[in-house]
């Protein structure tokens, strides 16, 4: 009943992955290590000591994965390019074999009648560039611009949908302040510099794609989640306000409104040079939103910024998903983005994890995920009816994959992957999604 004809003409349904999480082939055809290859090898950082060495072996099995998407009937595939595969040293000489892989992938996706959505950066910085200071080095904006130029020249004839970055705040905050992601640094100064340089890189990337790809449609992917003080307590209020700036505003506001939010603005001032804000704030075609659920902040003096992750209220609804589920927050976020930035929105990720395993008959009945996706789709409808201009929706993820710090233990796929045999098995949620797409299409 949530499939009434509220979807605008041309609404796109898709699935998402990212290079490091699915490709594997970590040392093949000239690929060099990324910061995540290094991070996986630090003791205790990734559950089970898992690495991205093999992952879903998408590097060799991409044709099978594209065929799966075709079977689901999706309109679009969002993937990312591995920077150290195409530029092993991060800059300088390109690696032809690495570039060839994305030619093959893009051509196969197009032949299947699916639109490729290319994300330039999904967290796998070449280790060679981290050795020069990574995003804390102001030169990183130039390294990124050159890398984007290479991709735009090579793929711009076939790829029209471009994403500069995936989730700016997750990889900067978790990479430079709360050590949950590569490179695992905890340093206020480096965190602030990384924020500013990534913003500069974004602006330079937009300019490169605009200059080289006629008809390009460019977005950036922001993770936005309401930040609430744990337990509703006043002593957690400042922690929540600061985390809200780091998590929700430090990238959207400068990129789309031309200024930093107040706390970040004060702290970041020494990094900002004349002309920077205009370089960051470039015209964008759409707002990419990744949304999972709200986050709770708690004051914690032991952390880099004095805040930490808090717990959801103990009585939070879980809807059989096993974690707190707040679909209304999704609707509210879409309406807030509409109010604050006034632009079309594409949901570039939404989904949920689990430990999904096959039953005796080999079926994977992930009813918890169907419940979650149904609730979130209903909220998206409400937001569209309320005036949000939502143009598309991508499930995270097509495949169970390398879930960062959780390794292979947390499965987000609508297609199950047996990591021993690499066998793919669509879960019940994949059938549900294929059916949703079919019904939504026949209703428009
Ligand atoms: C996103 N949080 O990351 C990423 O874009 C994906 O690569 C990832 O697999 C997916 O979500 C599922 O986790 C996030 O702590 C990581 O709130 C952490 C958070 C949010 C998003």
Automatic annotation (TrEMBL):
<feature type="binding site">
    <location>
        <position position="292"/>
    </location>
    <ligand>
        <name>substrate</name>
    </ligand>
</feature>
<keyword id="KW-0378">Hydrolase</keyword>
<feature type="binding site">
    <location>
        <position position="166"/>
    </location>
    <ligand>
        <name>substrate</name>
    </ligand>
</feature>
<keyword id="KW-0326">Glycosidase</keyword>
<keyword id="KW-0119">Carbohydrate metabolism</keyword>
<dbReference type="GO" id="GO:0005829">
    <property type="term" value="C:cytosol"/>
</dbReference>
<feature type="binding site">
    <location>
        <position position="21"/>
    </location>
    <ligand>
        <name>substrate</name>
    </ligand>
</feature>
<dbReference type="InterPro" id="IPR033132">
    <property type="entry name" value="GH_1_N_CS"/>
</dbReference>
<dbReference type="GO" id="GO:0008422">
    <property type="term" value="F:beta-glucosidase activity"/>
</dbReference>
<keyword id="KW-0614">Plasmid</keyword>
<feature type="binding site">
    <location>
        <position position="396"/>
    </location>
    <ligand>
        <name>substrate</name>
    </ligand>
</feature>
<feature type="binding site">
    <location>
        <begin position="403"/>
        <end position="404"/>
    </location>
    <ligand>
        <name>substrate</name>
    </ligand>
</feature>
<keyword id="KW-0624">Polysaccharide degradation</keyword>
<dbReference type="Pfam" id="PF00232">
    <property type="entry name" value="Glyco_hydro_1"/>
</dbReference>
<dbReference type="InterPro" id="IPR017736">
    <property type="entry name" value="Glyco_hydro_1_beta-glucosidase"/>
</dbReference>
<protein>
    <recommendedName>
        <fullName>Beta-glucosidase</fullName>
        <ecNumber>3.2.1.21</ecNumber>
    </recommendedName>
</protein>
<comment type="similarity">
    <text>Belongs to the glycosyl hydrolase 1 family.</text>
</comment>
<feature type="binding site">
    <location>
        <position position="122"/>
    </location>
    <ligand>
        <name>substrate</name>
    </ligand>
</feature>
<feature type="active site" description="Proton donor">
    <location>
        <position position="167"/>
    </location>
</feature>
<dbReference type="InterPro" id="IPR017853">
    <property type="entry name" value="GH"/>
</dbReference>
<feature type="active site" description="Nucleophile">
    <location>
        <position position="349"/>
    </location>
</feature>
<dbReference type="InterPro" id="IPR001360">
    <property type="entry name" value="Glyco_hydro_1"/>
</dbReference>
<keyword id="KW-0136">Cellulose degradation</keyword>
<dbReference type="GO" id="GO:0030245">
    <property type="term" value="P:cellulose catabolic process"/>
</dbReference>
